[in-house]
Amino acid sequence: MSTSSATAGRAGATGAAMAYDALMAHQRQTSALGQVAGRLGWDQETMMPRGAADQRAEEMAAMEAVLHARRTDPRIGDWLAAIEAAALDPVWQAQLRHIRRSFDRARRVPADLAEELARVTSRAQGQWAAARAAEDVQSFVPVLERIVALKRAEGAALAAGGDPYEALLDDYEPDAKVSEIVAMFTAMRAPLVDLRAAALAQPAPQGLQGTFDERAQMELTHLLARAFGYDFNTGRLDKAVHPFSSGSGADVRITTRTSAVDPFNCFYSTVHEVGHACYEQGIDPAYALTPLGQGVSMGVHESQSRIYENQIGRSRAFTGWLFGQMRDAFGDFGIADEDAFYRTVNRLQNGFIRTEADEVQYNLHVMLRFDLERALIAGDLAVRDLEAAWNDRFAADFGFAVDKPSNGCLQDVHWSVGLFGYFPTYSLGNVYAGCLYQAMRAALPGLDGALAQGDTSGATGWLHETVQRHGGLYRPREVIAQAAGMVPTEAPLLAYLHEKFGAIYKL
Ligand code: ZN
Description:
With 507 residues, the chain is mainly alpha-helical.
């Protein structure tokens, strides 16, 4: 190599390094502003005075306008062009992959559409909550019609000739294909329907009796959050109508809800959100406020929340410990021993609500939403016909009729905030959790002994090491495949469900 080309190579490398630094500085500010917008959303669901809804919609739309302008800044294209030809280390490559993807997608969505979506969906959350409280679908129909129209426009813009729904799905699960989701649901549907029917034909485990002090529930739910490794120094736990987690890095907040007759609703929604939050809190701090500094996809996110909640939190070993904690907190609640308590925690019931569904029926709830929202986005189902379509499908899948809209098509917040394409990531998460749990059990022979003492550190440490710390470094299926030692499929989840519920129901 001649001296001059070596010098040119160094100059090129220096130019790339300067462009990289400039790009990442821009990116860090965008990420910081994104966190601010997320905190406005958290505030809206927890603290905001009701009368502030219209002003908040304007605030959110203004933030979205700023963010959209930053994400489509033409300098990003110039910086990427200067960097992408240079030899890069894997972290650089991963950062650039995320930035390129976000830049290309953001540029396809017109700024006024992005802003209008932010404005409409911000206001719609309150409108959905009011309609749900009043059991009034009709008042929400025009709101949802507007949202579906905007999401169809966004999907079409993103898809650039492809499938608009798949383009929306890609926002939550990069690289996922509708055909793969359909195949996954097809493989799961019959075994789950059969398992559900077989279990419900058996005598039902007993339920909880009495009422449970809601202040004591909040105390125990804080204890549970700590037991699963949630860091309150960089987080907080508040009440909200619909439990969620929000934020990344050093500010990751979770919410829960209480019910006097159903403390499991509080405890397991907390453990679920702690799974999400620990993923965000556990990402390598070197990635903070960069594209790698947040969970890589909603499916991978949900794998963490579901494995915390179900495979760990609803295990025989851990529920033995929880039984003792609940006896200390509430006294006698009509359950004789740990074995009976385990069956109570995991009992199948006819129910309307996805978030309260047991592990066997949960994915059936998701399939219903997946099919209906695909039809809405495709234009095959009108919003005014949604309630009837929901109720028909629910009766066909679950064998009984929806009694009121809050138990039917108004139960989930998702569509009101524009989350179309999000629901299937819940089932992907369950499938990923099944794969991870199989590998975790093989890696941790003492797992049950520790869980029986309320010690989750082995399990959560394994997840931190294999999944959480990487943030966005690997692609979604790649990080699961590496951690699980297999190409992800639904087989481990189905085997786990058959073994667990076969034993509980003596099938
Ligand atoms: Zn979740």
